[in-house]
Amino acid sequence: MTTAIAPRSRKVRVLATLGPASNTPEMIATLFQAGADAFRINMSHGDQQSKVAVIQAIRGLEKQFQRPTTILADLQGPKLRVGKFEGGRTVLESGSTFVLDRDETPGDATRVELPHKEIFAAIEPGARLLLDDGKLVLRVTDHGPERIETMVEVGGALSNNKGLNVPDVVLPMAALTEKDRSDLAFAVEQGVDWIALSFVQRPEDLAEARKLIGGKAALLAKIEKPAAIDRLEEIVEMCDGVMVARGDLGVELPPQTVPPLQKRIVETSRRLGRPVVVATQMLESMIQSPSPTRAEVSDVATAIYDGADAIMLSAESAAGAWPVESVAMMNAIGISVEGDPMHGDRIHFTVTRPDPTTADALSEAAKQIARTVSATAIICFTTSGSTARRIARERPSVPLLVLTPSKDTARRLGLLWGTHAVHTRDVESFEDMVGKAKRMALRTGIAHAGDRVIVMAGVPFRTPGSTNVLHVVHITGDELRDYV
Length: 484
What we know:
Elements: E1 13-18, H1 25-34, E2 38-42, H2 48-65, E3 71-74, E4 89-92, E5 97-101, E6 111-113, H3 117-122, E7 128-131, E8 136-143, E9 147-154, E10 156-159, E11 164-165, H4 178-189, E12 194-197, H5 205-213, E13 218-223, H6 226-230, H7 232-238, E14 241-245, H8 246-252, H9 258-271, E15 276-279, H10 294-305, E16 310-313, H11 315-318, H12 323-338, H13 343-347, H14 358-372, E17 377-381, H15 386-393, E18 400-404, H16 407-412, E19 419-423, H17 430-444, E20 452-458, E21 467-474
Parallel strand pairs: 1-2, 1-16, 2-3, 3-12, 5-6, 12-13, 13-14, 14-15, 15-16, 17-18, 17-20, 18-19
Antiparallel strand pairs: 4-10, 5-9, 7-8, 7-11, 8-9, 20-21
Helix pairs in contact: 1-2, 1-12, 10-12, 14-15
């Protein structure tokens, strides 16, 4: 039995992470109905084979609900860790000296192995080393090719293989590990729509992933390293989308600096026309509680007011006790915020000046015309999705219905603000374009008899990047009668 899901009544997208609490076909379908627009598969947990059934279940929604699905595979990236301790743990005293070296002998309160030679080559005196998600802080006082001497600024208990963060230097490490390369090849083979790259420090880190993807998926850069902030604009220009990974940013930087950085990353991504996802701890208390804190609701609302394309659930939907309620809450917050009369003004605090192209000029015009003639929707025909991204960048006040002959494009647009994508056959003529736009607007419920809609396309048809037509169409209601 198929049941078509109507376009969402909100424009911000909801990205839900799947995991032990939510990876059955029944639960995935329930999350989709509750408001999940896209699904994240975390490649850090579980083996590849266990994810095949999950991917198939997500794709199965397309037949069930007559709507493209969107899958993001999130690569683990390099994980920096210290070695083991005698007895499994030790305690570092504040003010004491602690050494990290290449000796595999179990450590104690004075030293431990650091199995990452790249750190020894890059570290500098004065740099901080953060242990166990920033709970312990070391300050480098001296270093050599086999030894890093530090002073313990913030001490505490430390156990085997705890994580290490190096926020103050750019590490000469590739963003892709051997595990990541294997996971990326698997994800591309399985036909996922987005690949999220961790540990991005510089634009060059995206090059290898881009080459390995080979155009078969879109590339999303996770901004989680301070070094990435220094070259943010270059990184955003080289990727297809961005994630504000606030968890690691909040470890490597003082937490009070993360909110303004979040706004800067969202603003840069929007200005350059890249979808941007705000992630991590958005409804953290809902891992165990059926309702969020008011502070968490305000945090999610802030991301929506800033104009983020998507808001993401992590453990809340992957491993929490209330996955459906978490998605439903994200959906409810989105509807409430976008219902605020001031929402439209606030999301346009970011100025998105058009590039000197016909597509950008028409996209900007479409937003203004929609408001002037009280259009119900903007409908665009696209092959690559570029036109849809340019229109969404303007944050129009009406929904965007995207008609594309490319199933891959339809699926990738699941992370794009305000977009409802439909995979459909291409058009052959101007008359065919107008007729199809009317019929699809009625079939999806995005417009009704008596409404005006704005149609955008490129002539000649089937030519990517040729957007040069903007047409205001009046829907009479008779269009479905002639549909074949």
